[in-house]
Each structure stands twice: as C-alpha cells, then as structure tokens.
C-alpha cells in the first residue's frame, strides 16, 4: 500500500506542474484577450472560451490535489471532539462516501460527454466532449487522491501532532 501511495504522490507532483502550466496559459490568454480587445480593437473570438475550458480542468485538478493534502474546506466540529481512532474511522468513512460520489460524477460526466459529443464549441470549433471530459477526468483524479488519503489514514499509527501536515 505504501508503494501505491508513493506512486500517487509522484503522479500528483506532475499534476501540480501541469496545473501551474494551465494556470499560466489561462492568464496569458485572458491578458491577450483584454489587450487585443481594448488596445487593438480586435477581439479574439476563441480566447474567452479557451480560458473557460482551462478553468474547468484546473478546478478539478486543484480540487484533487487539495483533497490529497486534506486542505479542502471542511466542517470539523464533530471530528475535533473525537479521539484519534474514532476520528480516523470517521475520515475513512467520509472518504469512502466521497469515492461513491466521485463514481456517480464519473458516470454522469461520461453520459454528458456522449450527449454533447457531436456539438462544436462556438469560438474554437472543437467537439464539446473535450471540455466536458474535465468531469470524468476530475472524478478519476479525486478518487485516486481519496484512496491515497484512506491509505495514509490506515497506515498511520498515531495522531499527527498539532500544527504538522497530515
């Protein structure tokens, strides 16, 4: 299980680099759009669309990375009051339920891709299944990182000290 955890963390390092590149490209596209529209008076018809699609992918990748680091927003009122073992069991249960929801998200994302597969985007003229692919891809990444969190919780021998990363 530790080997799987290392593999997932190694993959997440590449995802972090990819996320940085996607955010940089998105920023450049948005700045180019503003400059071309307001300075040169020539709007780029594809730029807003590309930025929106890149944002969709970056949200799913970022959420998966945040899930792995256990940095997603959470209400921990109950778990903070529990001792280590019940807290760990609660976190494992929450991640198992999350995996079930990610499986539903995956199936619905595939279904949506099938419905929009013949449509072309207005500005870039690409199949709409490409932007909608962010949903099942994101569900896979979220599931992978939820599994990593579960493995980490199972392998943990004791509670992490206050102030240390989980």
UniProtKB/TrEMBL annotation:
Residues 26-154 form the Tripartite ATP-independent periplasmic transporters DctQ component domain. It is a multi-pass membrane protein. It is found in: Cell inner membrane. It holds the Pfam family DctQ. The keyword Endoplasmic reticulum does not apply. The chain crosses the membrane at residues 14-35, 50-68, 89-110, 130-155. Its main location: membrane. The keyword Membrane applies. InterPro entries: DctQ, TRAP_DctQ. It comes from the Bacteria. Keywords: Cell inner membrane, Cell membrane, Membrane, Transmembrane, Transmembrane helix, Transport. Belongs to the TRAP transporter small permease family. This is TRAP-type C4-dicarboxylate transport system permease small subunit. It comes from Ammoniphilus resinae.
